[in-house]
Amino acid sequence: MTSYFLGIDGGGTSCRAALADSAGRICGRGKSGASNILTDPDTALKHIAEASRLAFVEAGLEPDLASVCAVLGLAGNNVGDAVNYVKARLPFARADIVSDGVIALQGAIGDEDGAIGIVGTGTVFIARHEGRLHSVAGWGFHVSDLGSGARLGQLALQECLLAYDSIHPMTDLSRAILAEFAGDPENVVDFARLAKPGDFGRYTPKVFEYAEKGDAAAIHILKTGARGIDEALDAVNTLTRSTGRLCLLGGLAPLYPPYLAERHRNRLSQPIADALTGAVALAVQTYGGAKGIRAEARA
Amino acid sequence: MTSYFLGIDGGGTSCRAALADSAGRICGRGKSGASNILTDPDTALKHIAEASRLAFVEAGLEPDLASVCAVLGLAGNNVGDAVNYVKARLPFARADIVSDGVIALQGAIGDEDGAIGIVGTGTVFIARHEGRLHSVAGWGFHVSDLGSGARLGQLALQECLLAYDSIHPMTDLSRAILAEFAGDPENVVDFARLAKPGDFGRYTPKVFEYAEKGDAAAIHILKTGARGIDEALDAVNTLTRSTGRLCLLGGLAPLYPPYLAERHRNRLSQPIADALTGAVALAVQTYGGAKGIRAEARA
Q1: Which end of chain A is less crowded, N or C, counting CB atoms within 10 A of the terminal residue's CB?
Q2: Are A185 and A210 members of one domain?
Q3: Mind telling me which CDD domains this protein's record contains (chains A, B) (predicted)?
Q4: In chain A, how many domains are there?
């Protein structure tokens, strides 16, 4: 009888599952809806099971969730209550819940030492050195995640108010953003007061777009953001002795490199595989008896 | 028969009133409770009337609110609905509601041209040039008020997380702040997620205290804040052609000067009088037939 292993990559918009045999070969995949264990754990459980069944079906197998061991990489895994609630209700033989960052690291750098920086609406950096995982930044928008999409968008709104007040020169970027608020700074303030990180992040593509055209304010904002990323990467390099693969992941990963310090830009490489592949690999390692590195991370 | 004029300085913690004769001589003062017209307009109205009656009493006069003209400097005066609600219910013969900044300006620089910077939990800069008022910054914590107490406190919390992650060196300031959160960065994050500007601002005295002891992180934070203040003062100087009195007011006014650019530090002078005195002066100017400058400002 063949043993199968499940990897799950679950987040706020979708849940993806991959089924692999004990050699780690993926034989089926499935996708379902949101699996946010913090805001709606029951729906998350439903979608985790649904994506898993679809992976069995794609593999040409009768779905038998109770027979498999799984590793789930879930956003929000740092909140103990939610994890305990979900873990107690999972349909699998055995299961481990890790952070979305841990499966992304495994996918991107495989079993070797190395590090990733996830730069999207937020930022987090994860390094593996001699098998140990270390997490840097990722504390969220309010007091961390310098250089994240949310922070860049916030800086862009701030910049347009500075320009409105003639504290900074008015540039095309500030003019374009102010125009989106009907030219009224009060509208910017009203928006910012209630804005969530993702709301600020919606202005970030504009910053990259105008920086490419040479807009001084946009370039200044990106330099500020890049300094935040560079400093976090320096901390990561200290942890890893600058050895192994270094990958940027997340929505801003393709955009940031031209603005980063050369010492980092020159070390960046493409991820080996995606986070779902990382989750499957961890499932095989954790439960397959394969010689592997057990995921350990903050949270 | 003598005409009397009332000045009111109302805010979130107290309401102060001063009664003056037509020459602007203050003959009585009164103080009551909070007068926040946004959050509790009815209580604000009650406290405005109470402080006014006490000013009559101190002047040895029978309270006769319906006989006086008043100028009220109130925080939250930029929200039209609240102003209209309160204005329609004031007990005075005639009354004008202006911002707290406008009465502070009048008190600090009198009738001449000049400017003030109010640096407290938030910041706002008001300049008068050839009789016209101009407001700079003051859009609030989320996308403005660089260098404000709220921003400095937020930077201090951010700095202690950067130090925790070894992105920046751990200094005494970061160690002290982290200790207030039981050494657990999660506690910092939880606090920051719900913190209001005043909550962040509570960490600001610590920043000045440690900067004075030479703490590198504290000095860096204050330099960042001071750059924000310097740039706003540059914008103010452009408006005023660097003429007239320049005063810093607010809780951080005594602390900031050593960190400001020399070009600003050398121009700072003490305010002539306080905001309440400014409100009375504006009441006499506005309603007393005296040759005066009518307050006009954004909002």
Answers
A1: N
A2: yes
A3: ASKHA_NBD_GspK-like
A4: 2
Is B149 domain-assigned?
yes
Characterize A214-231 residue by residue with b for buried, 16 or more Cβ atoms within 10 angstroms of its Cβ, and e for exposed: ebebbbbbbeebbebbbb
Distance in Å, alpha carbon of B52 to nearest chain A alpha carbon = 33
Q: Which of B144, B168, B189 sits opposite A139 (nearest CB)?
A: B189
The reply to whether B150 and B253 lie within a common domain is yes
Cβ contact A161–B143 (<8 Å): yes
In a domain, B32, yes or no: yes
In tens digits, chain B (299 residues) has pLDDT values of 568 999 999 987 899 999 999 888 999 999 999 888 888 899 999 999 999 999 999 999 999 999 999 999 997 666 678 889 999 999 999 999 999 999 999 999 999 999 999 999 999 999 999 999 999 999 999 999 999 999 999 999 999 999 999 999 999 999 999 999 999 999 999 999 899 999 999 999 999 999 999 999 999 999 999 999 999 999 999 999 999 999 999 999 999 999 999 999 999 999 999 999 999 999 999 998 644 334 333 33
Q: Are residues B37 and B58 in the same domain?
A: yes
Phi, psi of A60 (to 5 degrees): 75, 25
Report how far residue B134's alpha carbon sits from residue A236's, in angstroms, rounded to the nearest whole number: 47
Torsion from C-alpha of A172, A173, A175, A178, nearest 10 degrees: 170
- DSSP character for A290? -
Which residues in chain B touch residue A77, judged by CB atoms under 8 angstroms apart? Answer: none
- Chain B residues close to A146, C-beta within 8 Å: 158, 162
CATH classification of the domain holding B106: 3.30.420.40
B161 and B142 part of one domain: yes
> Which residues in B lie closer than 8 A to residue A187 (C-beta atoms)?
none
Q: Which domain holds residue A17?
A: 4-110+272-287
Cβ-based neighbour number of residue B168 at 10 Å? 19
